Amino acid sequence: MIEITFYGHSSFLVKIGSKNILFDPFISPNGKASHIDISKIKADYILLSHGHEDHVADAEKIAKASNATLVSNYEIAVWFAQKGVEKYHPMNHGGSKVFDFGKVKYVNAVHSSTLPDGSSGGNPGGFVVKHEKGCFYYAGDTALTFDMKLIGEQFNIDFAFLPIGDNFTMGIDDAIKAADFVGTKKIVAMHYDTFPYIEIDLDKAKKAAERAGKELILLNIGDSITL
């Protein structure tokens, strides 16, 4: 079991043992997360799926304040290094790395990736994290892809962080299919309701998940859950 705290949009802090892993921190510019004080967020690692501002906005500040190791694709990792982030680890698609909290594999995502200043963010990705207590999939921003079946074949996924907001990413129907592909019944929802483009009917999404035999976990910003 690991503890997960939701900071809005696609940002989660995952505690594995004594280590805090922060995913895609977009908190201070998010009006819905105005009650979250990022100075109190302590991260040992920051994992970034792609370069869009709504996934990296607070990465530099939190990385420097926490002395965290920033992990992403090569282009994003180097971009942050040039901004003074001293600890970083570049990856690329299909590659794995063992860290002190577990093994991370950088997997495919179908989306786009441009950094806030217009620089190339390389190709977007997601992460599979295998640790001593289990394994989970963080999809990042992505369409449904058949590549997800490979994740289900290679790993025993306990739960998956999946976007459900549609328009820019998968919607709930494709997220349910993605959960089928990776072999999990638990979907931790992300990338919905932050902006008008991705506002959805949450009751409808819940009912769709129930019909498919899935548990759709919708967290309030600032709330934590143990999975």
Automatic annotation (TrEMBL):
Gene3D superfamilies: Ribonuclease Z/Hydroxyacylglutathione hydrolase-like. Keywords: Hydrolase. Residues 8-191 form the Metallo-beta-lactamase domain. The keyword Hydrolase applies. One of its GO terms (molecular function) is hydrolase activity. SUPFAM superfamilies: Metallo-hydrolase/oxidoreductase. Pfam families: Lactamase_B_3. PANTHER family: UPF0173 METAL-DEPENDENT HYDROLASE MJ1163, UPF0173 METAL-DEPENDENT HYDROLASE MJ1163-RELATED. HAMAP family: UPF0173. Belongs to the UPF0173 family. This is UPF0173 metal-dependent hydrolase CLV48_101868. It comes from Cecembia rubra. The lineage of its organism: Bacteria, Pseudomonadati, Bacteroidota, Cytophagia, Cytophagales.
